[in-house]
Specification:
By secondary structure, this protein is mainly beta. It contains three helices and ten strands, in the order βαααβββββββββ.
Length: about 190
């Protein structure tokens, strides 16, 4: 039987980027001259073309990464075709208020390279259907579902959901439908 896991709410899509130091110095001068933000420069496609990039993802030293926020307004639904199996709020994955775990989780470290003046994180805050996963199994058991959590880059002692496993096999993302609400730049 086919099952679906839908993530509704807010999450982030981000790229860990590095640009050559000589380009970074030139960009810093432009930033100072124009008295503008990093966001104004790095998310401006016309500016990126001038410095040799057609999109900000080309500056990434790793591929795009996604993280679903564990928040009281974010919801996770599991369905068997159109039939709802369970629905819960993503914050329940933190399990800080329960004696026994309601859901299986595994803590995965989030890779961040060492800090350098020419390294930064480009981030988009997105909202909507943040992810839809599909998998097949003859019989579904919630106990065999494992949610991958990683430390939140921006809040201490908080986590992101970064993936889902079923029977120790990673389930791949099939669909998403989000709206970008905010774009930010963080220096590493």
């Amino acid at each position: 039987m086919q099952y679906f896991i839908h993530l509704f709410g807010e999450g982030i899509r981000f790229w860990i980027c590095e640009i050559p130091e000589d380009k970074m110095e030139a960009i810093q001068e432009i930033k100072n001259e124009q008295e503008c933000s990093w966001e104004h420069l790095f998310f401006d496609l016309e500016f990126l073309k001038k410095i040799g990039y057609s999109h900000w993802s080309e500056m990434a030293i790793e591929g795009e990464q996604k993280a679903f926020l564990l928040a009281t307004n974010n919801r996770i639904e599991i369905k068997q075709k159109a039939k709802l199996v369970t629905r819960f709020m993503s914050i329940e994955l933190e399990q800080q208020s329960t004696l026994f775990s309601l859901y299986q989780t595994v803590l995965e470290p989030l890779y961040l390279p060492e800090s350098k003046p020419n390294r930064f994180i480009l981030m988009q805050l997105e909202t909507g259907l943040f992810g839809s996963y599909t998998f097949e199994t003859p019989k579904f058991s919630l106990e065999l579902l494992e949610f991958q959590l990683s430390p939140n880059l921006f809040l201490e002692n908080k986590y992101f959901m970064t993936g889902v496993n079923y029977k120790d096999h990673e389930i791949t993302l099939k669909k998403e439908d989000t709206l970008v609400r905010e774009m930010r730049v963080f220096k590493l």
